[in-house]
Amino acid sequence: MEKQKKNVKAVYTIVSRENDRDRWVQVGIGFVNRDSSITVRLDANPVNGVLQIRDFKPRQPAGRAA
Question: Is 33 left (phi over 0), alpha (psi -120 to 50) or beta?
Fold first, then answer.
């Protein structure tokens, strides 16, 4: 099970905002294959054409400490 979690990636695009912090928006998920390639499934297309692929970390419900 732990190995499976390591093979899952979160896919984000970073939205730049004027006079505010950049916002990371999750637009899909990725899976590391046996040959170390990555299959990406997008739920949305980034307007800026840039993707960030990071290790998947489940979010904690609001108000709970990690």
Answer: beta
- Residue 25 in any domain: the answer is yes
CA separation for the pair 11, 28 (Å, rounded): 5
Number of independent structural domains in the chain = 1
Range of the domain at 27: 2-55
More confident residue, 17 or 25: 25
- So what's the pLDDT on residue 1? 46
**What is the pTM for the complete model shown?**
0.74
The residues, any chain, with a CB within 8 Å of residue 45's CB and separated by 6 or more, are: 27
